[in-house]
Structure formats: C-alpha cells, structure tokens
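[step 3/7] inverse_fold.run input=structure_tokens len=450
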C-alpha cells in the first residue's frame, strides 16, 4: 500500500530579449568556466556546453564521462537522451504540414484521426495539442506503460493506452503539461503523411538541416557504441551509470548529439527551419531523472548555447545561470539535490532538525509540502539500502501528518524491511485505527501476530 511520487520537470521557459546588457565574450567565458568548475567540484555535472555568438562558436567545455562505471569519455558526437526536447521536432513537422496546407491549426483532431470518440475528437484542436491545452494527460503515468516500455512498441500501441485515459479538463479551458498530447500529434503526422514519424524526422528534420544522427528506436540506439549512459547520483554523491535504453516517441526519448542540437538551435535563431517559423528567444529543456539537456537562443543578442548532461536536472540549473551571465545579472549559487541535502542533514543534525525545517526544505526543492514529500524520499532511501534513515523520515511524517494512513503504512513497511516486526505490527495497528474496514490490512496484521 505504499505510495511513491516521482517529481519530474519537463518544459519550456522563455526569457525576455530586452534585458541583455553589454558583456564581453571574455567575461562570459570566465564566468561560465567558474560556474561549470563549481558544478563539477560539487559532483553535479557530467556533460558538455557549447556557446556561440551570431553563429560563431566561442566556448566549449566538457566534464565527466559517457559512462562513469568504466570512465569512458565523451565528445561532441556522443549520443545523449534529450528527453522531451524532441517535442521541438514534432512541433516543427506540424508547422511544415500547416505551411503545405495539409493541416490547419484550428482543425479538430477527428478530421485526421478517429481513435478518440467523436465527442472528444471534435473538441480537441491541433493548436490545443501544441499548446498542451487539450485535456490529455501523461502516458508516463499510465499503469500499463512500464510494461509496454520493456519492448520495441509502436506508436499505435502507445495511442491504444492514451485513449483509455479520461480527459483532465475540457479542451481549451486549462493548460497541463502533456506527453500524451505530443504522442497524438505524432499520430496525426503519420496519418496525414502516410509515413512513420521516424521517416518524417529523417525527411523533414535530419536531411534539410544536415544533421548527422538521430537514434529513435531501441534497436537503433543499442547499435551506437558512442552513446552516453544515464547517471544517477546516490545519497553519498557516487555516480552510477545505467544504459537505460528505451523507445522514443514523438513526445521524447530521442538520442542525438551536441553538434545536432547546436545546428537545430541555430536554425531556430536564424529562422531557417524548413517551416520558416520565426522565433524571438527561448530556453527549452528536456530530461528524465538520469538525463537533462537544454537549447537556448536569443535573436536580438545573437547568443545561442546548448547544455547536455547525463546527470539529473543540472542542465536546467546551469542554463538558468548562463542566461543570467549573458544578461550580466546576478544568480544564486548552485545547490545540492534535495535528496542529498535531506540525507546529510539527517546524518549531521538529526531528525528533529529536519522536522523543524520541513517546510523550508520543501520550498528549497520547489515542491509542495504534504505527506508525499518525505514519503517519496523515504522510499528512495529504502532503494539505496539506507533503511535506518528512511525510518527517521517516515517517523517525522507520522508526527507531522498523524491522520493520514499512508504515513503509518510506510513506516511499518520500513520496519518490516529492517527486521523489526514488532514495531511494524504496532504501526500497522495505528493505520488500522484510521482504516477500520481495510480487510487487506487486517489480514496482514493477523499474519504478523501469528
């Protein structure tokens, strides 16, 4: 009965163009070098950064390894998982199809695809899918997606999952980040062009921009020897590389290189994409818990840069600060990930200190503070085999949220894993007081009492 929560950030951030102050390339280079040196010293950064001004590359720095387990190095042609950044490619193909009069932004989904009932398909427009206002959710959270992801699945199989999910809201009334919406856009592209999404990528993105490689399928990725592995930084700061190859979709997961992303971002800045779409500026990110990449550009100043990392969310953190450097603005120092902060505070200051500062810690992490906050990190500690510290977090949770059954359940489970069945039984009984009709819990307690 444990509840786990995964906090991911995928999205698009825009920065204004008129805030750029006069700052020299030399000053930029010195400040970015200092920033990356600090990130590396803290053990947070593994990847590379490439910067240009008016198309002229003036800065490159690489740190870390493509595989931390073997210390295999990376270069500008090493393939990285770019997460949701390939939504940019999906969007570009849609713009091309609109230019070719094969689509209209105002078209209802049902005009091109019939997999949703007409009541839904007639409400959702292409523009709403692009803007994430369609009411569709996130297939990553679908209970059957984890099983589907184990194989080389088709876009059709993914759509079959998406259509079973209810709408989150009436299309057009709200905005909610949606991987499912971009998967549906991919299906629209396939229907309109009568070609696979992968083939559309090749013909409409790779060839026109002269890109060298986009690895889409699991089998294609596995053949590429010069690919980085995703990296987890554990509670003690040790880096563990994982070759976590999975399928790509029109919403995310493509493997590509620093050189390719640089060519794409420069095409956006120069307005030379095949769609002829004009942009002013942007800082766009994609990632997973093990990967993070960003593309950044500003037409007015002429600056572009790409950050690719095979560690956590550090590319987002670095991009925010590099943009501040380009504007000659101050920026906050880098922080360690909240899970490391919590672990180190438990070790050095104790659980009472963590309890007293709980809301501040959640605020520092940019997360809402409720019973899920410590619950989530407690299970991370269990997975890292640091059960005594998980027990400390779960105890805090019980004290702070004594009316929520799941806090007792998590603490009891942690005690069970530690071998302390007596304490586990006590907290399962406390949970039963809050859920007196829970038959599964009654059976568990009965088995323990025997």
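[step 3/7] decode complete -> sequence:
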């Amino acid at each position: 009965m444990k509840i786990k929560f995964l906090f991911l950030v995928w999205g698009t951030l825009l920065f204004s163009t008129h805030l750029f102050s006069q700052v020299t390339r030399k000053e930029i280079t010195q400040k970015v070098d200092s920033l990356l040196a600090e990130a590396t010293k803290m053990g947070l950064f593994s990847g590379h950064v490439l910067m240009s001004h008016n198309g002229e590359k003036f800065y490159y720095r690489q740190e870390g390894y493509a595989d931390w387990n073997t210390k295999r190095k990376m270069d500008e042609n090493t393939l990285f998982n770019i997460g949701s950044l390939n939504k940019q490619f999906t969007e570009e193909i849609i713009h091309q199809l609109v230019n070719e009069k094969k689509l209209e932004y105002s078209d209802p989904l049902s005009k091109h695809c019939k997999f949703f009932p007409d009541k839904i398909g007639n409400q959702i427009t292409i523009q709403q899918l692009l803007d994430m206002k369609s009411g569709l959710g996130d297939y990553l959270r679908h209970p059957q997606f984890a099983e589907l992801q184990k194989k080389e699945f088709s876009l059709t199989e993914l759509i079959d999952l998406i259509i079973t999910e209810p709408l989150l809201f009436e299309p057009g009334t709200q905005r909610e980040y949606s991987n499912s919406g971009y998967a549906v856009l991919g299906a629209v592209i396939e229907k309109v062009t009568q070609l696979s999404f992968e083939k559309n990528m090749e013909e409409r993105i790779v060839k026109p921009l002269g890109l060298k490689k986009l690895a889409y399928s699991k089998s294609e990725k596995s053949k590429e020897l010069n690919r980085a592995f995703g990296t987890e930084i554990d509670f003690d700061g040790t880096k563990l590389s994982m070759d976590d190859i999975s399928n790509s979709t029109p919403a995310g997961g493509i493997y590509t290189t620093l050189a390719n992303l640089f060519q794409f971002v420069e095409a956006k800045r120069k307005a030379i994409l095949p769609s002829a779409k004009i942009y002013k500026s942007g800082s766009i990110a994609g990632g997973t818990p093990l990967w993070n990449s960003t593309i950044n550009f500003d037409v007015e100043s002429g600056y572009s840069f790409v950050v690719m990392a095979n560690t956590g969310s550090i590319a987002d953190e670095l991009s925010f600060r590099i943009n501040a450097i380009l504007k000659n603005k101050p920026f906050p120092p880098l922080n360690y990930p909240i899970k490391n902060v919590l672990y180190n505070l438990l070790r050095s200051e104790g659980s009472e200190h963590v309890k007293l500062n709980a809301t501040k810690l959640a605020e520092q992490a940019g997360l809402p503070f409720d019973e899920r906050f410590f619950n989530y990190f407690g299970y991370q500690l269990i997975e890292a085999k640091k059960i005594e510290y998980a027990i400390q977090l779960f105890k805090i949770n019980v004290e702070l949220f004594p009316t929520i059954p799941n806090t007792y359940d998590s603490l009891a489970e942690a005690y069970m894993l530690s071998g302390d069945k007596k304490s586990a039984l006590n907290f399962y009984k406390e949970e039963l007081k809050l859920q007196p009709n829970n038959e599964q819990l009654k059976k568990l307690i009965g088995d323990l009492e025997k």
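[step 4/7] annotate
The chain has a mean pLDDT of 93.
The chain has two domains: 1-334, 338-449.
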